[in-house]
Amino acid sequence: MPEKKILQRARKDARQGKASSTQAGEFVREEIEHIREGKHGARSAKQAIAIGLSKARRAGVKLPPPKKGKASAEARIQAARDYAQGKKSPGRPASPTRSLATKTALKREGQQAASHTALSRQAHASARSRTAASRRRAAEKAVRTKGRLGLKGRAKGYTYASTRSVRRFQPKCPISVRW
User: Fold this and answer.
1) Does residue 172 belong to any structural domain of this protein?
2) 78 vs 15, 160, 171, CA distance in Å?
3) Separation CA 59–CA 30 (nearest Å)
4) Where are the alpha helices (DSSP H) in 38-164?
5) For residues 156 and 170, what is the distance between their CA atoms, to the nearest angstrom?
6) How distant, in Å, are the alpha carbons of 9, 34, 169 from that of 4?
7) Distance between CA 41 and CA 32 in Å, rounded?
8) For residue 64, is it within any domain?
9) Residue 151, in any domain of the structure
10) Confidence category of residue 141, pLDDT binned at 50, 70, 90
11) How far is CA 147 from CA 48, 140, 153, 168, in A?
């Protein structure tokens, strides 16, 4: 069961009209935190993400199961089950024996799946599978939502000020050189 604050954050994202993948991201982030805290482990970054997405679907996030060819048949069937469960009102809780078995199995796994390197490698592999047109659309959307200044600032190595509502940049180094 996801933490209450995670559910609230996901619902807030939904109210703001954000994409279902953004809402699901909250659950994935929670799962990564659990692994880093040592609550349990995961075999790979991919498994950690899958657990988070499963929790999101079961919590009611409108995240449809992957299409044929994108994931294995078993994964797609389980995702469809999770999605259907999320549409229903909460029924009886999961069997304690089953929950304990899952937790024990995950505890045997390591914590490397949530490392910066593992997540970076997973993101890179995921991006490689996308087409150039898909990456271009994502970049164009980023310009629309963040603005050109936001992207340029990030590329130059500037960081946002402590308050995100204030859109000013602070250089990382104290001395900035103009050419």
Assistant:
1) no
2) 27, 40, 47
3) 13
4) 45-58, 73-87, 96-107, 116-128, 132-146, 148-156
5) 11
6) 9, 15, 34
7) 9
8) yes
9) no
10) confident
11) 32, 10, 10, 13
- The tens digit of pLDDT for each residue in 88-124 reads 877 678 889 998 999 999 999 999 999 999 999 999 9
What is the pLDDT, as a whole number, of residue 162? 45
Domains of the chain: total = 1
Statement: the pTM of the whole predicted model exceeds 0.70: yes
Place of tokens 């040592």: 38
* pLDDT given for residue 148 in this prediction: 67
Burial of 14 (0-12, 13-18, 19+ CB in 10 A): middle
Mean pLDDT of the chain: 84
User: Which residues have C-beta within 8 Å of that of residue 158, sequence separation ≥ 6?
Assistant: 169, 170, 171, 172
Is residue 27 scored above 60 in pLDDT? yes
